[in-house]
Amino acid sequence: MTTRTETHFAPVDQDLYAKAFQLLDPTPEPVAIAADTSPAPVSVILAAVPVHRPGPVEETLSDALAFLDTHGWAKYRLIHPEGARCSIGALRAAAGSRNAAYRDAGRLLLDEARRQHGQHWEAIPAWNDAHTGPQVRSVWEAAIQRAHHANI
């Protein structure tokens, strides 16, 4: 069996390549092109990519929203007979217990609900029951983003 390795690619003009990148991302210092064109070791590539690890609050909020997406969102009850839950029910399902992540996620969710829908909301269930699905989802998504940016 004969395997062909020809790629029929045109050779790259390194000077033109460097000029194109300089036009796309001009920098005050000239960028030198390394003569060695061998690929970087995997360890260097992996070390260069920052990895976000969600904190317990972000994880709880994300898991709760995923629960709502999977099982459905409910109003006026913690758990609907068909499995849907209200916002508090989803938080409880995601956290597994009333631990610190559950409490902090609930505080952040209520704070975001107040930001978007007014300061008068005393608790998550009342806010949940007074709003539409898209309004509730908007608050969940914003709370997750805040937890992500705060790295909590």
Kindly describe this structure:
This protein is mainly alpha-helical. The chain has seven helices and no strands. The chain has helices spanning 14-24, 42-48, 56-71, 87-95, 100-117, 124-129, 133-150. Helix 5 (100-117) packs across helix 7 (133-150). The radius of gyration is 25 Å and the shape is elongated. The mean pLDDT is 83.
Number of helices: 7
Helix-strand string: HHHHHHH
Helix content: 55-70%
Structural class: mainly alpha
Q: Determine the mean pLDDT.
A: 83
Work out the radius of gyration: 25 Å
Strand composition percent: under 5%
Nutshell version of this structure?
With 152 residues, the chain is mainly α.
Structural topology:
Blueprint: H1 14-24, H2 42-48, H3 56-71, H4 87-95, H5 100-117, H6 124-129, H7 133-150
Features:
single chain; 152 residues; mainly alpha; 0% strand
